[in-house]
Design brief:
- The protein is 6% helix and 43% strand.
- It is mainly β.
- Among the domains are: 6-196, Protein Transport Mog1p, Chain A (3-Layer(aba) Sandwich), CATH 3.40.1000; 213-298, no CATH class.
């Protein structure tokens, strides 16, 4: 007998109690089968999975189609035992006799009212039946480890968790050897597909897909997304995404991290542009597509930068704000312009270290720059911040970016005349109507949205709305009147229907904890991008943010 580790991990994942009725099935219907991509023995294979949907269990998930399934019940709850081949893949080693190694998975949900002590004692009994054990504690705040000796050639783990008003445990065992790494891949897929019936939430630490850094929806059906090394496109509202990443060594060998995509612009369902740069390259490259990602072309920009902000007002006129390096309270930038859709780029202005007190028409070196936004081919703004009270850092151009002057059309709200502030790039819905977000740090962190109906010649300030004090603000406007701001600590979604003149606090169901991005295309329809374990989740609303439904999205290859 070889003594091997058997880990007891009572992580008690804190899926906090949320408002709303318990037991209601918020999770949308799921298909009976799915084809999922798994990496077995170093190569990708498409595997058939079937839905595990036992009404007596509080969750659903997908398991390999060939697995055996045995439901069972005790006086404390109900569970299901799963077993099947470890799926070594076409190139995996086979044990003698041609029999593939087996894996076993036991999923058990305690009934509401069972205490944590009862749950721990029950799991301890299960573990004891599997082998002798010697338990020890480690000085870690939320984990308890125990070692167990199992039968030769086996490795197992057990975990105890909590979801709302009930506890659950997971016990898994697999053969060592060539099957183990493949089991880890199958295990990942099973738990990534796990959804709680009452909320549609994933298993703690799981995700609904790979990490997405940004989504940009054009309308209710069409949109774009960025993930590490990939450009994705959807034509069905985000349920399926097609990989439209530029092909060839000029992209795939270099831009494997999301950080290498320095800026992006998605004008419509067919038109996208990406500014990319890898350390050591002589210039930024702007990749562009006009056919939904089927083909791409690239053009060099004579600059190097770890940060690029991009804005296009039509298929011809666009700008890049290239960040060249920051000092305390200051930053050098270059402004590039194209008038042919990105085939050629020309530097039209900038702010270098010599421009701390700029000559008339130049951007100043002083102040950090947060972005660039244009209303039409002539009129645009560079936003930013400076460590000064009672002033807004914002510069405007009326000749396409050649010359700049301080924007003096914004009046500070009386409550924030002694506050430090940061302006963010304006967003225009047409050449005349747009909103300008401003963050104020005074008596908390608040946002005020300025609106214009005359192309930025005059601006009107709305009412302040509280936002999260940590991290970048999460907000969106679908038009001049309808907007949303998220407050992570309060778990509130603030909504306006009058351009920010007033705000309504919503408690979204389920919670949007971990929200990274909001993306609305109308007053009712929007998407939310949430952090989830090592990946992200995408949710959709059809009622303006009151209720949200997780999207079971798939990646087409």
């Amino acid at each position: 007998m070889v003594a091997l580790l058997f880990l007891l991990l009572p992580f008690l994942a804190s899926c906090e109690e949320q408002e709303g009725g318990k037991g209601a099935r918020l999770e949308p219907p799921r298909p009976e089968t799915r084809q999922l991509a798994a990496f077995l023995d170093g190569r990708e294979e498409r595997l058939s999975f079937r839905l595990l949907d036992d009404p007596s269990l509080p969750f659903t998930t997908y398991i390999p189609a060939g697995w055996r399934q045995e439901p069972y019940a005790t006086e404390l709850g109900r569970g299901v035992r799963l077993a099947g081949q470890a799926l070594t893949g076409e190139r995996g080693e086979q044990p003698q006799g041609g029999q593939q190694p087996e894996i076993e998975l036991d999923l058990f949900s305690f009934a509401p009212g069972v205490t944590r002590q009862q749950a721990e004692e029950t799991l301890q009994q299960v573990v004891n039946r599997l082998g002798k054990n010697k338990r020890y504690e480690e000085d870690r705040p939320s984990w308890t480890l125990a070692h167990y000796g199992l039968q030769s050639g086996k490795l197992g783990s057990a975990s105890l968790g909590q979801h709302r008003d009930r506890y659950y445990y997971i016990v898994e065992r697999s053969d060592l050897g060539p099957a183990f790494n493949n089991w880890q891949e199958i295990r990942r897929l099973v738990f990534d597909q796990w959804r709680w019936r009452d909320s549609g939430e994933p298993f703690p630490g799981g995700s609904s897909g790979p990490e997405l850094a940004k989504i940009d929806m054009i309308d209710e059906m069409n949109g774009w997304a960025l993930s590490p090394g990939q450009v994705l496109r959807t034509a069905d509202g985000g349920r399926t995404w097609r990989d439209v990443t530029p092909q060839g060594a000029s992209w795939s060998d270099r831009y494997t991290e999301i950080s290498y995509i320095r800026g992006s612009s998605f004008l419509d369902a067919q038109t996208a542009r990406l500014a990319v740069w890898h350390d050591g390259e002589p210039s930024i490259k702007v990749w562009a597509t006009a056919d939904g990602g089927s083909t791409w072309r690239q053009a060099p920009v004579p600059a190097r930068s770890a940060g690029v902000d991009m804005d296009f007002v039509n298929n011809r006129d666009g700008w890049l704000l290239v960040h060249q390096g920051a000092a305390t309270g200051s930053e050098a930038v270059d402004v590039f312009r194209t008038t042919d859709g990105g085939n050629n780029w020309t530097r039209v202005s900038g702010a270098g270290t010599e421009d701390y007190r700029p000559a008339p028409g130049n951007l100043p070196f002083g102040g950090g720059k947060t972005g660039i936004g244009f209303a039409d081919p002539a009129t645009g703004w560079v936003s930013g911040y400076a460590p000064a009270q009672g002033a807004l850092w914002l510069y405007v151009t009326r000749d396409g970016g050649i010359t700049w002057e301080e924007e003096r059309g914004l009046r500070l709200p009386p409550a924030y005349r002694e506050s430090e502030a940061e302006t963010l790039p304006p967003r225009f819905f047409d050449a005349r109507r747009g909103v300008l977000p401003v963050v104020f740090w005074y008596a908390g962190t608040n946002m005020v949205f300025y609106s214009t109906k005359d192309g930025g010649r005059t601006w009107s300030a709305g009412q302040a709305v509280a936002t999260s004090p940590s991290g970048p603000p999460v907000y969106d406007f679908s038009d001049l009147r309808h907007g949303w701001v998220w407050h992570e600590e309060e778990a509130k979604l603030f909504r306006t229907a009058d351009g920010g003149a007033s705000w309504q606090a919503l408690t979204p169901q389920p919670s949007l904890a971990g929200l990274r991005q909001l993306e609305f295309v109308s007053p009712e329809k929007g998407w939310a991008l949430l952090a989830a374990g090592t990946g992200t989740r995408v949710l959709r609303t059809g009622d303006g943010g009151m209720t949200w439904t997780p999207i079971e999205w798939e990646l087409e290859r």
